[in-house]
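=== RUN LOG ===
request id: a7f3
mode: sequence -> structure
chains: 1
length: 240
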Amino acid sequence: MSESVPLVQKKSAGGGARIEIQGLSKRFQKGDNRIDVLRNVDLVMGAGERVAIVGPSGSGKSTLLQILGTLDRPSEGTVLLDGQNVFRLPAREIDRIRNQRIGFVFQFHHLLPDQTAMGNVALPLVIGGAPRSEANDVAAARLKRVGLGHRLTHFPGELSGGEQQRVALARAMVMNPGVLLADEPTGNLDPKTADGVFQLLLELNEEQGSTLVVVTHSHALAKRFERRLEVVDGGLEDWS
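=== RESULT ===
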């Protein structure tokens, strides 16, 4: 990963959502053993801010991202999205927020193998109630934006690793989410491909103004962010 790329600057309020975490803890029970992964975490991210979170494998950084994305619930504490206590909402409302306001990019793209690139990107729109034809038009436009206009009808197995992750990027941002969460988004790619995908992620985020949280084990990648945090003993500390 190149270290010569300009620092990612903190964004001002725009299309992003304000995130506030208060007293967040997460524990797992394995037999007689209790594992405290996160302990009393407090964090505020301004609308449109960009934050990198680092830490070794097993430190809890991915667990924190899953809670932010409502894929998991905290054992204690609150998560506020634009002042709204997300986990006090009915399950259906949480599902709606996850579909419409939160985008995800994972290390492994998690594309549906039986859907084309266009079908994968259109899926969040269809789930949100858009007509299939309209969803396909939007998905095609997004795929063209990430350089895959010639791959609309290709299935994931027919795409390279970098192309698959570009499809995943287009899918994550097709709803213009207020929050974009990326968990090791380039960790499964070779350095050259990874740099191109990551730069595209930043460009798309710049265009949409989403609040961006990237979890990574790469200090070189994290150094491209103005604000960097590290998971240490279940808590968050500033890292430089």
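=== NOTES ===
Residues 1-14 have pLDDT under 50 and may be disordered.
The beta strands are 19-30, 33-45, 50-54, 76-81, 84-85, 102-106, 179-183, 211-216, 227-232, 235-238.
=== END ===
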